[in-house]
Amino acid sequence: MNLKEYLEFKLPKKKWVTISVSELDNELKEKLWEMYKKTYGELGIISHSSIDSVIKDSSKLVWFIDVDEDPLPDAFIIYKEKSAANKINLLGTDGSDIAKKALLQKLFELLNSGFVVEASVSKATKLRDIIKSKNIPIIKDEKTVKKIASSNIKNLDKEGIFVRLNNIGEEMQKQIFGTLK
């Protein structure tokens, strides 16, 4: 699906729509990348070099939602299937408060139904604190954490916090939240 087809598709307002990763063309991928950079760039934690470094064959679906007057997507979530749980590997918004609210509502729904997300322990990010405030379970079991995050994690502590390299080679402290399949 290219951006023109997407716009002609006319997303229903305020409803999440599922699109297969294989349907995304370069224009639509660029829109995702812009939202990702807007979401994480302000925090200084862009951990991917390009949208294609995230959207791989293992990524399954993209959820889009349009919550404002223009026909463009305002928030998205991309996930990939893992044996232990469906792992959300990228999400973002256009920066508007209404899009952020829609994204968080969908995220909480998913994290309570067989999905997980790695959240940065960095003080610069609020996502971990927001998730913790909703009492979303923390994945602490080393075997499960390795299945979800990577077998190359280091220093897993009793709270489920670990260190791993991000996609551009920087060490980050992370914690996994959600529910298993």
What's the structural blueprint in terms of helices and strands?
Layout: H1 3-9, E1 17-20, H2 26-41, E2 59-65, E3 75-81, E4 86-93, H3 97-111, E5 115-120, H4 127-133, E6 138-139, H5 142-148, E7 162-165, E8 171-178
Parallel strand pairs: 4-5
Antiparallel strand pairs: 1-2, 2-3, 3-4, 5-8, 6-8, 7-8
Describe this structure in words.
The protein is of the alpha+beta class. The chain has one domain (3-178): Gcn5-related N-acetyltransferase (GNAT) (Aminopeptidase), CATH 3.40.630. It contains 5 helices and 8 strands; from the N terminus they run H-E-H-E-E-E-H-E-H-E-H-E-E. Strands 1, 2, 3, 4, 5, 6, 7 and 8 form an 8-stranded mixed beta sheet that branches. A hairpin with a 5-residue loop joins strand 7 and strand 8 (171-178). The radius of gyration is 16 Å and the shape is globular. The two termini are 30 Å apart. The model has no long low-confidence stretch (mean pLDDT 84).
Identify the notable features of this structure and list them briefly.
8-stranded mixed sheet, 5 helices, 8 strands
Main pleated sheet: 8 strands, mixed
What distance lies between the first and last C-alpha atoms, to the nearest angstrom?
A: 30 Å
The unreliable regions are none
> How many helix segments?
5
CATH superfamily: Gcn5-related N-acetyltransferase (GNAT)
Instruction: Look at the helices and sheets and give the structural class.
Output: alpha+beta
